[in-house]
């Protein structure tokens, strides 16, 4: 009896799975040899060309982060992935980051469950590559850079079409070929706005003003389409188990512990006032429909942020930072104004960059983007870092006054109460209906005195009580 043809051993590299298969095959044939006498047995093993199984490690994602929480797996064992496909989403105490593949191959092992802690340098997945890498040792370990949503594609080599992983994912979800999209970024890089514009041309959707084209007289104007109002984060219902439960702090909770502990070292100075928003309420009502026709929801917050930026031009010390030894003050060139945001992940403070160069409408567009990312848990590191001044809109939930805590290394923060309809006397001593909002300021009393905070608040209030006055100081 012949078990197989003659065995041929070549110098070709045999992968891990080929080796295991060969050993099993030899074992079976050896059993046949022991049981069969006088049989001419020739072993034949065909080594299938296969790649290496590489341990895909979590590399340093910056900001001194040493561990992350695995929030979601986009793949499972046995799935085939291509280069730049999303593998998983991890969350640090700074932001959520998407890890993408550097190879074409098959996922062989996932090292962590969802919500498990992964440390920098530890393996995330094992990937069997489609072919062996030239010059790579048998047990080569390759690290993949953790690619965040805002990472520039200039850091990724070997791709003809320039686009970030987030843009590629957006294109894939909408069945758009990147080769068909004209990039408007640097060196032809495809931006998120390019994907949205391309999709709008196919579907006839209304674009924000800055990417919307003016229709010619022969073109039909698309119907007005309102942006859906975003639902507030769902409040988790308590689960009564009648037992104490201990669970570790997540990444964002750890960040809050670190930030608030540092803030405790700052001597806070508090200042409160009320603002009559009657004229602003009327102005917003006139502009609201126009903004919605451009695809943007216009709230009061863009006006509050722009008024703060105009005030910071007159009081730059409020847009500064002080070193740890309180020996030097750094006056920030840009007004990166943060907005404390209640998200499903907890309190996050993304910021609008360079507010001094933006219009109220530009700020509204950026706020819409940040709020959408916050609700989806996809705020990137660039969105959450670099803030120079912060506003907290507690009034969206409730309350009139607060005692806001400064976010180091910033030196000032404001908390905005809810807008109330209250009776007030006008200049003719007649009672009138007024829209009143209370504001609470906190400042670093080591470098900011009460008079400075009071003067800034008065200027900020004057812009909001007479919003037309902002036009005089707009750049």
TrEMBL record:
GO terms for molecular function: acetyltransferase activity; dihydrolipoamide branched chain acyltransferase activity; lipoic acid binding. Its EC number is 2.3.1.-. Residues 212-233 are annotated as: Disordered. Its cofactor is (R)-lipoate. One of its GO terms (cellular component) is mitochondrial matrix. It comes from the Eukaryota. It catalyses: N(6)-[(R)-dihydrolipoyl]-L-lysyl-[protein] + 2-methylpropanoyl-CoA = N(6)-[(R)-S(8)-2-methylpropanoyldihydrolipoyl]-L-lysyl-[protein] + CoA. It is found in: Mitochondrion matrix. Residues 162-199 form the Peripheral subunit-binding (PSBD) domain. Keywords: Acetylation, Acyltransferase, Lipoyl, Mitochondrion, Phosphoprotein, Transferase, Transit peptide. It is an enzyme of class 2 (transferase). Its main location: mitochondrion. It holds the Pfam family Biotin_lipoyl. The keyword Phosphoprotein applies. Residues 53-128 form the Lipoyl-binding domain. PANTHER family: DIHYDROLIPOAMIDE ACETYLTRANSFERASE COMPONENT OF PYRUVATE DEHYDROGENASE COMPLEX, LIPOAMIDE ACYLTRANSFERASE COMPONENT OF BRANCHED-CHAIN ALPHA-KETO ACID DEHYDROGENASE COMPLEX, MITOCHONDRIAL. Belongs to the 2-oxoacid dehydrogenase family. The branched-chain alpha-keto dehydrogenase complex catalyzes the overall conversion of alpha-keto acids to acyl-CoA and CO(2). It contains multiple copies of three enzymatic components: branched-chain alpha-keto acid decarboxylase (E1), lipoamide acyltransferase (E2) and lipoamide dehydrogenase (E3). Within this complex, the catalytic function of this enzyme is to accept, and to transfer to coenzyme A, acyl groups that are generated by the branched-chain alpha-keto acid decarboxylase component. This is Dihydrolipoamide acetyltransferase component of pyruvate dehydrogenase complex.
